[in-house]
Structure formats: structure tokens, C-alpha cells
């Protein structure tokens, strides 16, 4: 078999998702022709998709030693470094892309995100604007199989608390193009409409994106395609708004939460609430997730110290609720809500009230792993009919298409809601917890089905519009 024949066969397997069959053919082509660029680059794509990033980087560096002006190899190496949180190395790779192709809008945007993550905000904003002025939507996920079943336009905004999307959208039967939304930019509406079946709005955080969300709706109306997580609904998901909306749901408690400016915090507005807050309280800098700038304070001195340390524009103050179980452990459950379906994602167990799965001792406690596995496979063993009724009521009140909830169950048997929004993370980085994979696969399938249902509606509407009128 010739090198070109091997590559042709490998590409067929690759496009249809048969990576295990494609990989040895790429390797055989490289053995026969060590400098073959397509074989090397396609092999590295498979290596990155299958979590062998270090090997991918070795191949890419080997390719660049032979072809230092290979833009595709520099870009691929940048993605490899970025996937491993190697921001400095990723910046070098993408800046090289810009040197070779100054009008590469996607590279400008990636550089902007990398700069923002390392605190170089002014430089990041310059790159965001440069990207928005240059670009058409950038394809970041190609459909497997025989061409895309439909096309998803993914709407993203820099620094706006976007919905984590990488795992959910990187592999599917659809193509994904990302459009960076920057207020004031004129977009080519006809081109967007012609290339889009469904819009997935990632701009999801009330606190960091609240000023942008009203400007997004007119763009979506012009595009005229079904939207997942419409910005008008995202505007209703602030922590204070959610605590008020969910307050009347039976067998559910979302602790009283209020949002204050820094000036209001200094003026002790929290001390004048009715009903009154009582210590301990939870306080966080608005717009943060994952436990960042978030703490429990036992008295006013600790609250004042937190404010002085964080120096934020807005804060949330939340009444602390002791949700530990009878055995003394705290349990945090996460459910994902996808087009009305309620699916478990994880259970984290700890001796501390502020729980993150990665910081618990679950890696070393088999009983905790067994309990999480049982929850994922049999959630109704833990959430009884009254709890599911509460989850359904919460779902109906929130009204988003794709979102998540972190919650517990207190000793009175109530669902205690910690947060409910569209910024929840779903990922596959759990080699130490392989029992989690089926739950994540179920979430991914439900997500893809949600997009497909909307694409079917959009295509039917487009076909109807294109059909000739039967009227004389």
C-alpha cells in the first residue's frame, strides 16, 4: 500500500470516528515518509483527543524542527500547551502563528484569553478587539461521520463566565463554529444565518456578563435560529434572584442571598436586612465560582476583613445553612438539567462545608467512591419522590435549556440549593474514578439530542420558507 493510499484510508476512519483504526495507518505513513506533514498533524490530533498530549507535543516539535514555518503545527502545539495549562508556552506558539499569519483572527482571540488568564488584561482586550474586527466564526469541532448532520454557532464573550463547553461539544455529529461577541461590532448576519442551524449561547454568568446580555438578544433575533440558553433567561439567574424565586418551593431551601455593592458593604447594609442575617454567614466576591474568594465568616470582624482583602465591586452575602448528614459528613450533589431531563453528574463528600470533588479525600476512601457510584446509577435511592418534585419545580422555575444545580439534603429532608446556573462544569478528567464515565456519557448524549431536536425544527422552518408558494 502506498503512503497516499494509507492516508486516504486513515482519513476515512478518522472522519468517521474510528480513531483506533486510523492511528496505525498514520504511523505507518510516517515510517514510510518521515516528513509527511498531513500524517504527522493528523496523528497529533488523535493523540490529543485520546489524552496523550505529551506524545503529541513531541511529534509537533519534531515537525517544527524540520518545518519551522508550519502554521498548523504551531497552532496545534499551542492548543496542546493550553490544554495542560502551560500558558507561557501556549502564548509563544500562538504569537508565532500571528507572526506568520497576521490576519488569523482565531489566534488573536486565543492569545487574548491566555493574556487575560495571566492578568495582562489591557493586552487581552486589544487582542479581543483585533480578533472581532478580523474574524468570521472559527470552527473548533468537526463532525465525525459522513459530514455534519447540522451546524451549531457557539456564542462566547471574553471574561463573561461562559458555560464550560469543551467536553460537551468537541466530538459529535455536528460542526461547531465559535463567534466571539463584542458589543459594538457589526456582524455579517446573512453569513451567520446561512451557516447556522442552532445557536448555543455560552454567555452565562449574571454577574460578569450582565451588562452584555441585553445586547446579545438583538443579534440572536436577526440570526433567527433556535437558541439554547437565551440571554433573557440567563439574566434571571443571579444568586439573589434565584434565592427569591426558589423560596416558595416545597421541600426546598435556597438560603437567603443578597447582592451588595462595595459601598453598601462598608455601610453595613447586610445588617439591616429583614429578616435579619445571623452569623455565621457566607460571603463571596460576585462573579466567582469554584470556591474562589468565598468564605464562611463567624462575626462582623471576619466579614470586614474579607471585604478589605478582596476589594470587589459587588458581593453576595448568604445565610449559612448546616447541611451535614447524620454521620457528620457534608454531601454536595450535582445534577445537570438538559432540555427538561434531570441527570446526576457527581457526589462529593467531605468533612468541610465548602466541598470541591478534587479537594476531598474521596481518592483514598473506597466507601465514598462506592456511595458516589451508587448515587450516579441510582439517584432515587438518595433523592426520594419529594426531592424529585422539588427538583422538577426548580427546573420549571429556572427555565433554561442546559444548566446545573449544586445541592445537598439537610437533616430535615429538604433539598438545600447552593447554586443553580448555566456555568456548571462537566468533564471527563476522572481517571481515578472510572465509575463516573457512564453518567457523563448520558449527559453528553442528552446534550447532543437537545441540539439535534432544535436543528430539526430549524431545518424544517428553513425548508418551508424556501418552498415555492402554492398560491397563484
Automatic annotation (TrEMBL):
The keyword Chaperone does not apply. InterPro entries: TMTC_O-mannosyltransferase (IPR052384), TPR-like_helical_dom_sf (IPR011990), TPR_rpt (IPR019734). This is Uncharacterized protein. TPR repeats lie at residues 71-104. One of its GO terms (biological process) is protein O-linked glycosylation via mannose. SMART domains: TPR (SM00028). The keyword Mitochondrion does not apply. Keywords: TPR repeat. One of its GO terms (molecular function) is mannosyltransferase activity. Pfam families: TPR_19 (PF14559).
